Amino acid sequence: MRVIPVIDLKGGAVVHARGGVRAAYRAIETPLAPGSSDPIAVVGGYLNVFPFETVYIADLDGIAGIGRNHDTICALRVEFPAITFWVDDGSASPASVAALARMSNVRPVVGSETLRSIEILAAICEEVPRTILSLDGKGSVVLGPEALPHAPDSWPDTVIAMALANVGTGAGPDLVQLRQIKAAKPGAKIIAA
Predict the structure, then answer these.
(1) Stretch 45-73: mean pLDDT, rounded?
(2) How high is the pLDDT of residue 141?
């Protein structure tokens, strides 16, 4: 089993994501970085537990379309050059995903909730084959283009099953969603979130 730690960024700080209710997210309190929600301290805390090779970053400001935390992401890249950061910053066009992919030690993640069409996803994957798709779900509904859940041929080879309502609640991944994605795209790398 591969475990990929996650940090959710909002206003340059790590926040405690819970149930997909982003307006209610507050600065994280964690024994990994006592008294701090600083992203470098939190990632450093992860690395004190285990030498993780990958860390997922959800730039909640970017996803919401109210600015991006690129300065923070760049600081993390410099501080931890051996880590590969999977970054969802709300990028949802071939040009913006390609710009993200040009950052050293970054692998771009495109969230379905920010996609406008399957055709745009195809163009993104053609431009940046390393793209990861996050199928963002709330219950049985996948956010984004209505046809996306039924068009696995348009998905890249790595797909995150993102159960937004379960995030930070201790409920674990949505196993039904995982099975559906696995059945739809056999051979793909499926990541449970």
Answers:
(1) 95
(2) 85
